[in-house]
Amino acid sequence: MRTDDFDYPLPDELIAQEPAEPRDSCRLLVLNREDGGVEHRRFRDVIDYLEPGDLLVANKTRVMPARLVGHKRATGGVAETLLLRRREDVDALGHVWECLVNPGKRLKPGAVVEYRPGGLHAPMSAPVVLTGEVLDFVDDNRGGRLVRFTPAEGLTLDEAMHRAGHVPLPPYITKYEGDPEKYQTVYAMREEHSAAAPTAGLHFTPELIQRIEEKGVGWATVELEVGIDTFRLVTEDDPTQHVMHTERYHVSQEVVDLVHQTKEAGHRVVAVGTTSVRSLESAYDPEAPAWRVPVVARRFEDVPDSAKVLGRGDIVERRNATTNLYLMPGSTYHVVDALITNFHVPRSTLMMLVSALATRDQIMSAYQQAIDQRYRFLSFGDAMLIR
Fold this sequence. Notes:
Layout: E1 27-31, E2 38-42, E3 55-59, E4 62-63, E5 67-72, E6 78-86, E7 96-102, E8 112-115, E9 130-139, E10 144-151, H1 157-164, E11 165-166, E12 192-194, H2 206-214, E13 218-224, E14 247-251, H3 253-264, E15 269-272, H4 274-282, E16 284-292, E17 309-315, E18 318-323, E19 338-342, H5 349-357, H6 360-372, E20 383-386
Helix pairs in contact: 5-6
EC number: 2.4.99.17
Enzyme class: transferase
Subcellular location: Cytoplasm
């Protein structure tokens, strides 16, 4: 297996520059893993492929205003900072963040950047609402830095970041000037923790979610704080040499119980997006005790104890845990049975993740059909159901 095996030619004109309106009007490619068959539908038709008793699990994380553009105090030069995650292990108050900075080579420890409302276009005379001092290197090759932020007097750090920051659209989206709320899911939580959106969820509307629940399909949410490393390309020729950075996630006991009920009744767990996959599969503990029941059983409580076999391997609750799970062909899915996802960047870990659920040949064939049919790709693009 080589990284080149997950490459494909993506025409620039197929990279979506704005979201579909309404959200659920985008196209949906349905891939059947049993025979490799493909159907072409609209996203609102996803309900036709869900059965009563199935469970949808989505990532409820919200994107923070993580893109800060300021000026270096020493020279006045422009400096851009992308917030990745708080480092409470360095500063319990949460003022130290792991960031990507640009230009990285010129921002050494001790450098100070000043941020103003309005960012790059703010006049130098505008009040400074936030300053950031570079403390240390995290990954010098990629511009990774530890930065301590200090808000202006009278502001909390979150208030200052909201005044100076912007929702960070991916770099391949260059023409969108619409409502930044379109880069949030309709079910996102109030607290903001992610540097990027869980984009498979962007296609859902409140009305579609209501119709799905009325059909008898369950709806549950996990939380994974999406970092940039989820989407970055694999540069190594051998993909097994790629190192995944960690992301924080949370899977509640309520979700664990719903997964158990769904599986025990013979139904499917359908992940909404690759971040939901990584949350659920990261919560699987191969050493945890688990009940095994006969396949013909429809309800766990109706199975006599004599027919229940205690085995090993089960999903368990995870609170404020971290994961660097890296799924690729050869990996086993223990929790997720089907996946709603977007079309991903060539040579990315996400191409490998979806190829672990289906097969690499099925995925590459489906992607070629999507290109031939002029589907819209990446974050604001169309969707895919792997069933």
